Amino acid sequence: MPKLATALCLLLPAAALAQPATEEIGSWRLTCATDRMTDRSACVLRHRDWVERPTVGAGLSLEIQDRGGKLVPVVTARDLSLDSASRAVLAVTGTAQLRLDRNAMMELPCGLEGRNLVCAPRRADADRAAQELPMAERALVRMAGLGSNTTATTEPAELRLSGTASALARLRAAQPAGSAGATPPAEPGLDLRDILGRLQNLVR
């Protein structure tokens, strides 16, 4: 059987081998793909339910990312386009509010990373976020700031968490700390000059 599988792989076109593979782990979905131009592998570990479903433009999702060697929860909107202008505005003024179980809420400042909106814990909160995440059974998420459709009285999105510890282990195995696919350490949030420059690049 292994020889047959190997033979089939050799017969498949290169494009098929580059297709992302998705694995379900509890409430999480791990998707890994290899860039055929650079041979670098990158993985996305995303909750199966949306924080905000995509309507016009990109939806908001809860992901787990490597930030400075720690696996922490982040809120993202990927591959922003002109239809996602409100998401880009969140990068200037936005903050994601996150509460894991009954632990104290933490604020995740938003910024642009390439064409992605990323709201990630501050360095001061990264240790706490990494410690609380594996055992948490529930995440409450609410966006705040210009560009969001929420107010202080808006009910947060409630996401049930399961299999998180296993999902973290699979992500770390697929994408070791410090690997090319891991997110480089950076303080979330950009200054206004950086934001305006990136927004100009976004609409070109």
Structural description of this entry:
The chain is α+β, with helices and mostly antiparallel strands and 204 residues long. The chain has a single domain (18-202), classed as Invasion associated locus B (IalB) protein (Immunoglobulin-like, Sandwich), CATH 2.60.40. The protein contains six helices and ten strands; from the N terminus they run ααβββββαβββαββαα. The protein has helices at 2-11, 14-17, 85-93, 123-132, 164-174, 192-202, and strands at 21-25, 28-34, 41-52, 60-67, 70-77, 95-100, 106-113, 116-119, 138-144, 157-160. It has a ten-stranded antiparallel beta sheet with strand order 1-2-3-4-5-8-7-6-9-10. A hairpin with a 7-residue loop joins strand 3 and strand 4 (60-67). The longest helix is centred in the C-terminal third of the chain and has 11 residues, at 164-174. It is globular and about 40 Å long. The N and C termini lie far apart (50 Å). 30% of the residues are buried. Residues 1-17 have low confidence and may be disordered.
